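Q: What structure does this chain adopt?
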Amino acid sequence: MEENVFNVTDSLIKKISFEDDLQIEYMTESDYAPGYTIDAYLACFGEDGMTWEDSEECNHLEELRVQGHYTQRDAVMLNVGNNTSIYGVDEKSHLQDIFLNIQRADQVIVRHLTVDTPRDFFSEWDPTDGIHGSWNAAFTGIAIENSTNVWIDNVHITDGEHSVIEAGKKFGSYIELHDGALDIWRGADYVTISNCRFSNHQKTMLIGSSDNMKTDIGKFHITLYNNVFENCKERLPRVRFGKVHVFNNYYYSTTDSENPYNSLSSEYYNDPNVFANYFIGLGVECDITSQYNYFVYQGTEEIPDSPSIVVYSYGGYTFSDIGSLYNGHTFEPERLANESFEIKKAARITKDTLNGKNSPAWTNATFTNESFDPSSFYEYEVIEDMEVIASLAERTIPEF
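A:
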């Protein structure tokens, strides 16, 4: 056997055998936190998942869950420092269950890799998150935090062989062990994501982690171009504070319930039994320029498609688009952004009034399509032939 055929940390591997072929048994939650099982943890919420059982046994399981989270984090996190380039050498170059953490670094390049997002065996169920509760995992495929001059190119990020359906369903939703595919937060700046594919993932790209992170103001100058987002439910990206240039990307999703990564557009927010999704999310004080992106959203007879999937406001009110197509036709993404902003603004004012609170500053804003001009930062060339953009869906990534 050749040396260095594979290279993973000992803390990820439980057992290696060579009886018939190379067999690697990886660590699981019971190895990181003996005594913890997700089934026992779930039982502490009862049948409906709404109330935690405040017993000695359940509280001990929660302690084990938190402890296991930190133990696993130390095992799977690979920290990337200054002036670092990570290149795949061929089509087999693959990171699996590794959290690539670019933190407080400058001048970093990651190219020609497939990244299977890590599973957080200690994902937390929060019954108060969203309409019917939500799973919150913590490990990201690639995280860019408080770093500058980062280029991610020709990388495929996916759930891989560990699909969201693997852990089954509980409380009406899949037990989600994956967090983000590629997240950018805590003041990261001057980041380019190009020629990448994001596939089969739910919470895909978060830019800015909180409305309260005022130190992020003036950061997040980010470019996304020539990327494919395929069967990703939302956050493509979801932006707070940043100036983000999104051009020549291809998007695909479906309403088909047979696809575990199916998406439901924002018009379904009026249905209390449905949590809706979006491609581009406008968060507070963001400024997004969209150019010649190709959006494909396939509906079913039961749930038709709707262009409202393309853009949805979470308090953001600065967005422009030129040249983009929806299912091969021109449409009005700026109008959709404006409508969703007004809906979100009215809902927030009503909620704050009922609770006797002051509404945030963004509720006094007026939507504008006067977004920033990327050419004031760099030279670039937009492809206006949308057949070329559509052809991105057929491209194999990573390419060599």
